[in-house]
Design a protein that fits this description.
two-stranded antiparallel ribbon; alpha/beta; 17 strands
């Protein structure tokens, strides 16, 4: 797909969900690598998980003069409009959303507000204050109950198995409509199971570590027969930075109307890992980092259980399009990524 080069130097970049796992790492990376950049970050700082993590990430960002933080909700239309009006960002990266598949079963309101209404407000901002590129987080969960693997962005994604997945698919549809109607260059990124230091405590690797440390039992779903395309956070950030700099080209069709400058990519490791192997590597790295003692009895703390509602047995990314268009493929091994997580965990919590 033809791309228009977006030079980030000297630009104002609006990042939502900036105190989140991916958002904070992205902001840090951009401020380190791009000259004269200004980052405007928004986050509602909710307590979906340990707020200390969000505060710690935010403190790291606030030491930079080029960073400005705004606490608020994506669903607050007046606030979002005022941000676009005041800062007129050239690039917008929407990572703010209510995350989590299982939480969407018990708290659906949070997903409609943050993921649907919030994204609509971002699109309206991009419409009234035109941007060079809107990049937004989608999710591998949009593939739902698809049987064909690896998952390709060419596949139909009409069978979501959670409300979270349905909101992410809706974001892609809304972005397409706005790209067509208002010629907004937009790129959606379907992330595959992101992990790493200072990640989300509701993710399996983090949750397992907390439970094992307390001597509790960890539940391994689908009797261990799940596979996940685990993607290290630095690889995700590298992918986002590259995509930010290459927007879908704006051009007119034969009818004189815009051909939607719209694209969607997978960012995954292209190497699904069996959950039991993943747990084995995690326990080895937790012992190596001295988070757990060498004689820890893992077998006594493991329970194989059936599949959870909203879950899928396998996630597996076809990343050819990302490689072809941006010359990038995630490469961090699961052991390397979990080692960095275990070392961080030891330092942060112990």
């Amino acid at each position: 797909m033809a791309k228009s080069k977006v030079n980030l130097t000297g630009k104002t970049i609006f990042i939502t969900g900036v105190a989140g796992f991916i958002g904070s790492n992205l902001a840090k990376r951009v401020m380190k690598d791009v000259k004269n950049v200004k980052i405007v970050g928004l986050d509602n700082m909710n307590d979906y998980y340990d707020i200390r993590l969000k505060n710690a990430r935010l403190e790291e960002l606030k030491i930079n003069d080029c960073f400005e933080f705004i606490k608020g909700n994506l669903a607050d239309k007046e606030l979002i409009n005022s941000i676009f009006e005041k800062y007129k960002p050239e690039v917008v990266v929407n990572l703010g959303a209510q995350a989590g598949v299982r939480y969407s079963i018990t708290n659906p309101d949070a997903y409609i507000e943050g993921n649907m209404l919030g994204f609509y407000n971002i699109l309206e901002g991009c419409r009234h204050y035109p941007v060079e590129h809107l990049v937004y987080a989608s999710s591998s969960s949009v593939y739902g109950s698809n049987k064909k693997v690896p998952y390709s962005t060419e596949d139909k994604v009409d069978n979501p198995v959670s409300l979270y997945a349905a909101t992410k698919k809706s974001n892609e549809l809304m972005a397409h409509a706005y790209s067509k109607l208002y010629d907004i260059p937009s790129t959606g990124l379907r992330f595959f199971t992101v992990y790493g230091p200072a990640g989300r405590p509701d993710m399996a690797y983090f949750r397992f570590t907390n439970k094992l440390l307390k001597g509790e039992t960890i539940q391994i779903f689908n009797y261990g027969n799940c596979k996940r395309d685990f993607t290290y956070v630095d690889d995700i950030v590298e992918g986002i930075v590259r995509v930010m700099q290459g927007a879908p080209e704006q051009k007119k069709g034969e009818d004189g109307l815009p051909i939607p400058p719209y694209a969607v990519y997978n960012i995954g490791n292209n190497h699904p890992e069996n959950l039991l192997e993943f747990v084995q590597i995690l326990q080895e790295e937790l012992i190596r980092a001295k988070v757990l003692p060498e004689d820890y009895d893992f077998e006594a703390h493991k329970e194989l259980v059936p599949m959870q509602p909203g879950d899928v047995p396998v996630t597996y990314a076809d990343t050819k399009a990302l490689e072809e268009d941006y010359g990038f493929k995630p490469s961090t091994s699961l052991r390397e990524g979990l080692r960095k997580f275990a070392e961080w965990y030891k330092e942060f919590y112990m």
